[in-house]
Amino acid sequence: MNAKRTGLTCLLLGLVLTLAAAPKVYYVAPDGKDTNKGTIDSPLATFNKVQEFVEPGDTVYFRGGTYRVRQDQYARYAATDNIMRRYTSHTGWVIVNDVSKSGAENNRIHYFAYPGEKPVFDLQDIKPPFGEVQTLAKVIVFHVRASWIHFKGLEIIGTQVTDYRSASQSECFRNEGSHNIYEQLSMHDGMALGFFLTTGSYNLVLNCDAYRNHDTVSANGRGGNTDGFGFHGDQGSIHNVIRGCRAWWNSDDGYDCINNAETVIIENCWAFYNGFASGTFNSAGDGTGFKMGGYGATPRLSSLPEFIPGNIVHHCLSYRNKINGFYANHHTLSGHQFYNNTAYRNNPNYCLLSQEILPGASNATDCDGFNHILRNNISLAYPGMQEVTRLGTCVNVNNTFTPGFVTASAEDFLNTIDDKQLEAPRKADGSLPDIEFMHLKKGSRLIDKGTYTGISYNGEGPDLGAFETNY
Ligand code: CA
Ligand code: CA
Questions:
Q1: What pLDDT, on the 0 to 100 scale, is given for residue 1?
Q2: Ligand closest to the CA atom of residue 258
Q3: What would you report as the CA-atom Rg of the chain, rounded to the nearest whole angstrom?
Q4: 230-259: b (≥16 Cβ within 10 Å) or e
Q5: In angstroms, what is the span from residue 51 Cα to ligand 1's centroid?
Q6: How far is it, in rounded angstroms, from Cα 350 to Cα 391?
Q7: Is residue 307 part of a domain?
Q8: Cys-Cys with 408: which of 157, 290, 400, 416 at CB 3.0–4.6 Å?
């Protein structure tokens, strides 16, 4: 090939690459129309329509205001497919937004709130049966089957449950893809779980809030499935992380990792007031802050994963949940890592209940904790409530409940009273608000008292608890 032809080939190749790499921007607005062009002056109306246009690298901006989703706007009804995987049940699903088109490696499709605006999706009218959906059905607001997707700044309210016949559940976000980012999402005042993962790897849930969610319809309204965040990945669902999130006043648990077959990392998250009817302290569902694993009360050995993972929870705060703050939830064989957490006013703050497999048995059975590792954790006592139960032979190092080590008292903290600080607005970048509640006071004996866990710290050593000081 001569130099001239080589130059032409390079030029053409460069042109193709340039065309392929040029990301486009689309707009969706509450007063948009799906017959519009998708520009800022001619916005579309729905996610399902804009998805037809997008390619990897593109950005969709949702303008502020309320999108009251109509019954004729849902994507599909899934009657018999297996999207529930291990969670089969007798009713199908109304998929409102079907996220089926993937981005590409390191070239995500972005579904973002328009900067400075707040798009709110109101699902109150999606109450099956309706229209072509002739049966009771559950609702998934965003069914994310795709990979390399980034959601940011979307708010979802009013998601319904209408199937009263059994313990049912609707979901705001269902993840079945990989390499997705869920950022600054707010899922509240509905009957659905906030976020629910059944499969997929390398997903990040970042700075999201799930609150005041309570299924008051199914199973006599106990709300026993309505968790803030659920991680229930199958074998091969690796490297999933949840960071900087809050779960409060969900009728079941804050964070639930039951039936999870791979390690999940939960870091810098808060759980409070879970297990109560929204806005009250009336008992509803289970009420654990961080439910870290387990496979049920007496699981058959044949139903357990081939390799049982331990999960990791560190620098998290669990406060005033109905029962456990941090809970091993009948986990078996392997152990979880509980590092630098703070628990107060749960009952108990930590429960390490495990399960053993006895010779000849076909089911695992409850026993005191073993193989869990607890380091640098704080338990602050509250009158009438237990601190740590079923500790068994777990590794218990540099915790306020480690025998002969320092103990925590209210005097160690800047504030143990004003729990409303936990609901404060997030910072502009989406990170958790700066508060004083349950933060250590200057001079506390719990500062620098921790053992190194591989995570950076200030001063002469890691502090105990969730919030490293910088005095
Ligand atoms: Ca739960
Ligand atoms: Ca320190």
A1: 40
A2: 1
A3: 24
A4: bbbbbeebeebebbbbbbbbbbbbbbbbbb
A5: 32
A6: 8
A7: yes
A8: 400
Cα-to-centroid distance, 253 and ligand 1 (Å):
5
How many structural domains does the chain have?
A: 1
Within 79-202, strands assigned E span: 92-99, 109-113, 119-122, 137-144, 149-152, 155-157, 171-175, 181-183, 186-190, 193-197
Establish if 55 belongs to a structural domain: no
Going from the Cα of 143 to the center of ligand 1, the distance in angstroms, rounded, reads 20
Does the structure show a pLDDT above 60 at 15? no
CATH of the domain at 140: 2.160.20.10
- For residues 238 and 90, which has the higher predicted lDDT (pLDDT)? 238
Task: Give me ligand 1 centre to Cα 224, in Å.
Answer: 6
Which H, E and C letters describe 196-249, residue by residue?
EECCCCCCEEECCEEEEECCCCCHHHCCCCCCCEEECCCCCCCCEEEECCEEEE
Q: How far is the CA of 465 from the centre of ligand 2 (A)?
A: 10
Residue that the structure tokens 């250590």 belong to? 440
- For residue 67, being part of any structural domain is answered with no
Q: Which domain holds residue 327?
A: 83-423
- Residues 159, 186: Cα–Cα separation, whole Å: 12
pLDDT value, residue 134 = 83
**Residue 258 Cα, ligand 1 centroid: separation in angstroms?**
8
**Residue 57 within a domain:** no
C-alpha 216 to ligand 1 mean position (Å) = 15
For position 12, what pLDDT does the model report? Answer: 56
